[in-house]
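Minimal example, chain plus NAP.
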Amino acid sequence: MARRKPGEGQTALVTGASAGIGVDLAECFAKDGYDLILTARSEGALQEVANRLSAAHGVKAHTVAQDLGAFGGGSAVAAAIAAKGLNVDVVVNNAGYGHAGALTSSDLQTQLGMIDLNVRALVELTYIYWDRMLANKRGGVINVASTAAFQPGPLMANYYASKAYVLSFSEAMWEEARGTGVHVSCLCPGPTVSKFRERAGTGKTNLGQRSKAVPSAPVARAGYNAWKQNRAVIVTGGRQRLPSRPGEIPPAQNAAEDRAQRSIAGDVSMERRRPRRLFC
Ligand SMILES: NC(=O)c1ccc[n+]([C@@H]2O[C@H](COP(=O)([O-])OP(=O)(O)OC[C@H]3O[C@@H](n4cnc5c(N)ncnc54)[C@H](OP(=O)(O)O)[C@@H]3O)[C@@H](O)[C@H]2O)c1
């Protein structure tokens, strides 16, 4: 008799699953036998991913097309899931975008939309499924932040701040779930090949030129494996170090050191730093 896969009988909801890291995160779960619910705005792309993953891994893959940046977007996704008679065991909050440039003369809706998608929808979906996870003593959450989460980012201030929120929230939820069987991990990728840079407009910046983007599949795998082990924080991106000078590290370093102990960051140093203009 074939061995049962660890995810059989469970369902993972993956946001931002029409492109980029979200597709690879969805595939990690499918390989382990999880059924999938894939959400993003692009219905056609979602359906293609769902068809491919269900055929390749023999799992059920459902789609819900929804703008998660819209007010109540998370609740609308949950309502659509309930209407299909489905349950959610794992939430992968991956959908997000960035925008490079100074706050002055930027578009307010682009700025607020980042908070609505990167933060608000992430909290909403976590909240909706959290009690069920605790009651079931299994499942959990993967939140996708960024290496941007570890320091303020002038000229991309709102994006960095949104990811700092995601990191802080995730670490706190990891602690709240400790010992319950519910796993929480915050995946903090460095530059990764996807459509992110195109939308964010970071490709031609100094940092964009200097840093080498890594493929999204290993980033997703590292995040998924860290989540299986209930590691609170996982930083990916190889040898990319953000610039820092000795003496520039404020007292919050202790918290960062504590984090580093729980991450499998290997060769990546991520101390909390004073603001530097990384994107000029
Ligand atoms: N790539 C990087 O260098 C990098 C580095 C650090 C962190 N990250 C983070 O990784 C996550 C995934 O990004 P990615 O690199 O894979 O970028 P991506 O290729 O642009 O994918 C973003 C995903 O989010 C979805 N999305 C965007 N706006 C949405 C909205 N309003 N409502 C619902 N879904 C929406 C997109 O689908 P639709 O357009 O179809 O809605 C797409 O599926 C993001 O949270 C990003 O901040 C990326």
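The domain at 11-262 is CATH 3.40.50.720 (Rossmann fold). The beta strands are 11-15, 35-40, 61-65, 90-93, 140-144, 183-189, 233-236.
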